[in-house]
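User: My collaborator and I are trying to settle a disagreement about how two of our proteins should look. Neither of us wants to argue from intuition anymore, so we agreed to look at predicted structures for both before our next call. Could you fold the first one, then the second, and keep them clearly separated?

Assistant: That sounds like a sensible way to settle it. I'll keep them separate. The first protein:
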Amino acid sequence: MTNPTDLASQYRIPADRYYESQHHMWAKPIAGSKRVVVGIDALGLAAMGDLAYVAFRQVGTEVTRADSFGTLEAAKMTGDLYSPISGKIIEVNADVLKKPSIVNDDPYEKGWLVIIEATDWENESRSLISGDKLPNWIAGETERYRNQGWIR
């Protein structure tokens, strides 16, 4: 079996974020604020293929954890983008709206999707994957995605 740490490198899963396990969204809190940057992780992107289109709900929209905050069209699927946390959308990445491929090229920096002002980060972040749980989660998800034929 492949070392979980190697898988984190292969799929570029940074350890400085929190990951929503079902929809492969990541959340990175901005220090000293209630703001949280949200994006799609590299493993989820590998399964979807290249993004062709994204749309987000409007700035000021309140979202609840697991609610849709937008939609996407990719090479292998079309679907909703689900929020890993509750709060208000305070910023959308206009560059990604113009050029969705930025997300595939740089999912953790330039390819972020929205910034949410979190209403319950303290509690909701506990249900996200982070820290020492990350390597085993990545290994399990990689195996599951391979078994499904979504990645090689």
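The second protein, kept apart from the first:
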Amino acid sequence: MAGEVAAYARDEMGIEFLPWQARVLDRLLEVDGDGLWCWPRAIVLVPRQSGKSTIVRALAEWRAAGGGTVLTTSAKLTTILDLMREPQLRYRDRDGFTVKLIRDQPEIAWPGAGAQGHRWISQASNQMLGRGFTVDLAVIDEVQDVVPDAWES
């Protein structure tokens, strides 16, 4: 699956992963013999400005494009707005895509999106985070600043 994410990143985003990014994706997307995630929860710790957001963007876009519902969150609204700025600009004029802000929180819906699936939603963390929909992939940025009630929801 990491190869699929890398191909998506190259073809849709115009980027090539650095070697460390490719290794992280290989491990994050590793499945066992039954096709279940080896690492259903994972923490990736890297210094600021090293390319973590690139991995998150590629993984979120790939999963949403494939039919999943993706939720990204952070304690700071500015962090999620920064994360989604480039994808929103890239998709806003494409046929079938819906790019919007709901209460200042960004969402991108791919063509064919329904109530569930083909969506990437970003919300600032709070006790109501992710309520009302099923999430296939959740990414918490700067988890140390997110209240436990938010990530437990």
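Some points you might bring to the call about the second protein. The chain is about 35% helix and 20% strand. The mean pLDDT is 83.
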